Amino acid sequence: MTETTLAEICIRASAQAWKDDGEILATGIGLIPRIAAGLARLTVNTDLMMTDGETYLIAEPLPMGPRDSSNDVIEGYMSYSRVFDNLWGGKRHAMVTPTQIDQFAQTNISCIGDYDSPKVQLLGVRGFPGNFISHKNSIFIPSHSPKAFVEGEVDMVSGLGYKNQAAHPHKPEIVTVVTNLGVFDFNGPNHQLQLLSLHPGVTLEDVMTNTGFDVAVKSDELTPEPSPEELKIIRVILDPKNTRNAVFGE
Amino acid sequence: MNKIIKESDVLDHLSDGMTIGVGGWGARRKPMSLIRAICQSDLKDLTVVSYGGPDVGLLCAHHKIKKLIFGFVSLDMIPLDSHFRQARQKQELDVMELDEGMVQWGLRAASMKLPFLPTRVGMGTDVLTHNPGIKFITSPYADGEQLVAMPALKLDAALLHVNKSDERGNTQILGPDPFFDELFARAANKTFVTAEEVVDTAALGGKDGAIFNRFERSLVTGVIHAPCGAHPTSCAPNYGFDLEHLKVYSAAAKSFDEYKEQFVNGPHEHYLTAVGGEDKVNSIPLPQF
Fold first, then answer.
1. Number of residue pairs across A and B with CB atoms under 8 Å?
2. What is the ipTM of this complex?
3. Under 8 Å between Cβ of A185 and A162
4. Which terminus in chain A has less CB density within 10 A, N or C?
5. Which top CATH class is B4-99+153-282?
6. Average pLDDT, consecutive stretches of 10 residues, N- to C-terminus, chain A (250 residues)
7. Is the CB of residue A55 less than 8 Å away from at least one CB of chain B?
8. CB contact A190 to B (< 8 Å)
9. B128 to chain A, closest Cα gap in Å
10. Residue A90 lies in a domain
């Protein structure tokens, strides 16, 4: 078996986010989060529900890349309308990749720069306002830098964070933040971003210089690598065509 | 009542400054033949409500939109629409940017003839900062919670694409996800539907077919026969989105005249020939996500 890659370490770390969720909808948006949700479903939380990325709930996680979908075992139905109904009830945990995130855990996928004359128009807020106020979320950032972890605040708050708690009673529940440098959460003092572990070869200084705000350190231990069984699930079942290693150019 | 009309007849029902809702989702089941008809018309200053895809982009490229009410604009496999981005970055349109669920709530409120529907969604975000017109309401019950009062999104017209219709406007959406087309139809004063096939009522499939009838014919003003009318977006189960065409469309943001001449100007039949014909479109496989 070849050496474990950074993508595989991130997948394994991300999968742990869904461990204590019970029977809810796991949504991983993007390659690493999606494989991670599948790994969670096959290891730490076998009760998770997942979709085919489109309209159906499927009994087993699907492999990445083209497949013969006539073999998919369908559990049920999950149109967009039903996703909205489900998520407002809170029975969902998504892992997403915002373009910007700040010290308050506020996230942005709308635009970069001044709102009225954006430098870069992105997707639009999509479901972030509803997701972050309604259910658990985790974050995957493939390129940990001050451009992603911005100084001050994000340019357009799409998902609410822990700011202005006095002004409104709502706060998000952000479970895990996985990046190419390490594993974090927002459970430091006053919901400060805090380091839980560093990936192999990454230093504390790498984290500090690549984050636009102060990071608390709960632990700087090494991020656990996938077990042989987890590696086999990732490599053989979930991503046999090895799409994952393109994420970091491995 | 026979409701069969042509794309160009829809223009008689539309006027400058109207609010128009477009069904479908991203690069899926958009009434593109109607969008192209609007692009060729003199219509202007439209307010458009959409789960946006190339419908929004193409209208932006033709400067038809004064204000866009949206949650996102995406071409699915191509995450961002170049024409929409360009219009936003050049400050060419006003926006009311909403959570995609708030869009649904606004359409639902309009459908139910309510002024608003309450929701928590939007709290703590810049959606409310940039939409100062959206007000709050306090729950009259013991919880006293302050909620967002999402205003009704009333439409002058809705434009939808479906798989089948009869001439009376009994429509069927056969793809697995009907998206929010029903709410667009209910929120609108008039709804115009393009259909892959126009069939006799008896050919709609009886009871088995009826579950695909997502809204009643009394909501439908006009039916246009438009085979492959959603191209380059998908129309499951008939055809997937045309990724190659969407790439050509995206690249045209740099210089639009050639694309416009080749793919926008002219009737739907002309467009179909330009993109390779019905058989070619119907052979585009459905995407896997």
1. 122
2. 0.96
3. no
4. N
5. alpha beta
6. 91 98 97 98 98 94 90 95 97 98 98 97 98 98 98 98 83 97 97 98 98 98 98 98 94
7. yes
8. no
9. 10
10. yes
